[in-house]
Amino acid sequence: MSLMANETKQPLLDIKGLRKYFPVKGPLGVFGGVKGYVKAVNDVSFQLYEGETLGIVGESGCGKSTMGRTILRLTDPTEGKALYKEEDIFQLSGKELRAIRKDMQMVFQDPFSSLNPRKRIGQTLEEPLAIHSIGSKQERTERVMEIMNKVGLQLDHYYRYPHEFSGGQRQRIGLARALVVNPKIVICDEPVSALDVSIQSQIINLLQQLQAEYKLTYLFIAHDISVIRHISDRIGVMYLGHMVEHAPTESLFANPLHPYTQALLSAVPLPNPQKKRERVILRGEIPSPMNLPSGCVFQTRCPYVKGVCKEIAPVKQEVASNHFVSCHLYGEDYSH
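User: That's the sequence. What structure does it adopt?
Assistant: Structure tokens below.
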């Protein structure tokens, strides 16, 4: 998708100031009171446009998956807005929320634990249609057969149980379950991280084929930045619950601005063995999400840290066209 078109287009999903904090109880559980909060997602804002893929990348524990689950209201937000077609998902309940969920589905990281081991695959895939009162029993079965064929499953798989499938096949089932209600947005939560490399490429190619056929919009979460580069139109980089940089894919790889992004990209192997990339080694300790430092959250590991970094949190600014970064290196008070 053309990013220039995005400048004049309304976003399909607009996330504003999303925060998700988890309370930590004292040693006596509920009687000990709350002794602090794990700030899993901290003031994240971004837009998702129809037909594009926005990749979210970062280390394990940075809040990527929590963000995805919170957007779908699988866990309730602490603060913020999630505007889908200008309607705030976080303010909906009951039938209104169910109607929105038909348009927004999720593919989970672990395809086995996300499937009911006691149900045949056909039952599992028909269940979303029944919940949303779509079609008759026969029409639901026909729809399931159709979507199974689209994701590369055989029709006799309809009668089998989850334990009878390989990891790649189970992920195809998870994808079929997400697509069976014909959603607009699919949140893919590390959908290939548990698969072999050869199977990963098959699933990624399948995701791209289905996106083109059904005009899907993806929020694609992964810790492998090479996978993110292959599938994404834009990329957001997360660190300790904050989105520190987001930009068009090629712009991010050609000119990574945030020191954390530079370190991530330096770890990606080059396809040419004759060329070597200068590796950026991050030193220092990762702060606890319960006790984040004042100022910039990356200050404890940043090789360019200055006094202002320890006192004032950087604000997001557009350094190049559609290329945003939260870093004092690009502020008025410091020249990189």
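The chain has one domain: 3-330.
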